[in-house]
Specification:
The termini are far apart. The model has no long low-confidence stretch (mean pLDDT 97). With 458 residues, the chain is an alpha/beta fold. It folds into 2 domains: 172 residues, Aspartate Aminotransferase, domain 1 (Alpha-Beta Complex), CATH 3.90.1150; 252 residues, Aspartate Aminotransferase, domain 2 (3-Layer(aba) Sandwich), CATH 3.40.640. Strands 2-8-7-6-5 form a 5-stranded mixed sheet, with helices on both faces. The chain is built from 16 helices and 14 strands. The chain is globular and about 60 Å long. The structure holds ligand F0G. Ligand F0G binds next to α4 and α5.
Length: 458
């Protein structure tokens, strides 16, 4: 009998979580203005809001915490991190930041100017936020396969070369500071970008003299998909694959809260000293001195170990197989999910799940709230609320997909939790025809509204 995969770790410490009653959850949701970001974690049984900074660290990472060097300048922990980042990415210059969006803020302060165009594959919302905040535009060049949830195309994070070339032909190169490749592509469903596609994007961009920058939050998961799905890559290590990927860019922004396997942190890594010098000024203004940039020495020490562990095949196999296990269970129960299952999350198609809810009543938010009411599971809307309003017309932007994301924290929940989640979603699915009304907005901020928006039931 073929042995199934099993986690290459055992559990040394646990944290209690609590069940609640449906009546309690209904009350809490109302008090939270029907926005799951407003719930207290004590009101949540299984928290699938995000896989960002919510995972468990290894004993070696905890041990590294104790060795953290808290010197303001020239910390040993910074050196360790720099060495590891260089080993994994090939990039020489490192600027730590307190998280991924801070890396975007620092780097884009140098590179992005008003009126600029930044093509890429479905930019993440904070990335887009940092681009639009600078009155520049993000152009989504993701392949069309990504928007058909039943299409089994193995690299739905890929960039469509025709769409990209269209952008390069429409605007002068002075207006396009870089092409942003997000690995894996969170907004298209945690979907990977193939090595072949990255090579082609590099070749095309070279012809137009446009550099590539990676948003590398889940680069290790992306490398796992390249290894397991792409012909000719199966015998390479994750680290070899990652290094080749990074070789095609001039640098990266990183949210260490994902594939850094830590609870807080981020960084910029760069090939070029000149760009590093320019970005250093903004690091000092926004984040802190260039050898800590908003991170404690102990957090940099844990991150150095985390990056190493995240780029090991055994860890990635158990990580991605757990997400797949949940996704396949849902598929067997008839629940419409994005296929193939993504690296860090299962994405449910809310338009198919709740066809009676109009787009302007936020079907994905409606479904996320129903799943919470059903079983105390918190997930997140990746739909119209997240897509926000057009900065010029202030009209709702309706994205091609209206999804609910069930993001799985790393090394945190067990297979029994996955079974519980699938059963809960199935119960909502069974009563879906009785869910006829969605929500309307009563208050929203000007930008990144989904975090703080207040809603009421229609
Ligand atoms: N890029 C990608 C692809 C991301 O998924 C995120 C965060 C960021 C950048 C920003 O990093 O949170 O450290 O500031 N994604 C989280 C999520 C929040 O839930 O998907 P950050």
């Amino acid at each position: 009998m073929k042995l199934p995969y099993a986690e290459p770790f055992r559990i040394k410490m646990t944290e209690e979580i609590h069940q609640s009653t449906r009546a309690e959850r209904e009350q809490w949701l109302k008090e939270a203005h029907y926005n799951l970001f407003n719930l207290k974690s004590s009101q949540v049984f299984i928290d699938l809001l995000t896989d960002s900074g919510t995972g468990a660290m290894s004993d070696k990472q905890w041990a590294a915490m104790m060795t953290g060097d808290e010197s303001y300048a020239g910390s040993k922990s910074f050196e360790q991190l720099q060495e590891t980042v260089h080993k994994i990415t090939g990039y020489t210059y490192l600027l730590p930041t307190h998280q991924g969006r801070a890396a975007e803020n620092v780097l884009f302060s140098v590179l992005v100017k008003e009126g600029n165009i930044i093509p890429g594959n479905s930019h993440f919302d904070t990335t887009k936020g940092h681009i639009e905040f600078r009155k520049a535009h993000a152009v989504d060049c993701t392949v069309d396969e990504a928007f058909d949830i039943d299409n089994l195309y193995p690299f739905k994070g890929n960039i469509d070369l025709d769409k990209l070339e269209q952008v390069y032909q429409t605007y002068p190169k002075e207006k396009i500071p870089f092409c942003l490749v997000t690995i894996t592509c969170n907004s298209s469903g945690g979907q990977p970008v193939s090595m072949e596609n990255i090579r082609q994007v590099k070749e095309l961009s070279d012809r137009y003299e446009i550099p590539i920058i990676f948003d590398a939050a889940r680069f290790a998961e992306n490398a796992y998909f390249i290894k397991t799905r792409e012909k000719g890559q199966e015998n390479r290590t994750i680290k070899e694959i990652a290094k080749e990927v990074f070789s095609y860019g001039i640098g990266m922004t990183m949210s260490s809260k994902k594939d850094g396997l830590v609870n807080i942190g981020g960084f910029i890594a760069l090939k070029d000293e000149h760009l590093y010098r320019e970005a250093s000024n903004f690091t000092i203004i926004f984040e802190g001195f260039i050898t800590y940039g908003g991170m404690a020495g102990r957090d940099m020490a844990a991150l150095a170990v985390g990056l190493d562990e995240a780029t090991e095949f055994g860890y990635l196999e158990s990580r991605i197989s757990q997400v797949e296990y949940l996704g396949h269970q849902m598929m067997e129960l008839g629940i419409p999910v994005q296929q193939p299952i993504g690296g860090h999350a299962v994405f449910i198609d809310a338009l198919r799940f709740l066809p009676k809810i109009k787009r302007q009543e936020y079907p994905a938010q409606t479904l996320a709230n129903e799943i919470y009411k059903e079983a105390g599971i918190r997930c997140v809307e990746i739909g119209t609320l997240l897509a926000d309003r057009d900065p010029k017309t202030r009209e709702n932007r309706y994205p091609k997909l209206e999804l609910v994301r069930l993001a799985i924290p790393r090394k945190t929940y067990t297979q029994n939790h996955m079974d519980y989640i699938a059963a809960a979603v199935k119960n909502v699915f069974d009563r879906r025809s009785a869910i006829e009304k969605g929500y309307q907005i009563v208050w929203e901020p000007n930008i990144l509204r989904h975090f703080t928006v207040k809603l009421e039931e229609i």
